Here is the input.
Amino acid sequence: MRRLSYELDGKTNEFGKRLLDIIEQDIGNSLCIGETDICEIVYQDRYLNSPLPVALLIDFINALKQRYQDQWMVRTTKIVVAEGGERNIQRPSKIFHDWLTDTKRIE
Here is the structure.
């Protein structure tokens, strides 16, 4: 597994292309193999809670659309922001620190 440190640094509007390049380089292949159409985008994230991550997500989707324009048949886009827990209960020390229950964390 690659550890990213500076590879994605740069302008926000070039983030998507940089990330897509890294992903495809690491898997050693294109994300869309053959003539398969891209029909749906589903993205789930619990940290999509401010303008910057939203802008980065949009730029990544635009990079996908540009690179795979001949296969771009997206009709449905679903973005799910998972509900977090109380933010003021303790200093963050674990990835699951702000979930009220295990049930909420694994939804």
About this structure: The chain has one domain: 12-106. Residues 12-106 form one domain. The longest helix spans residues 51-67. The first strand starts at residue 38 and ends at 45.
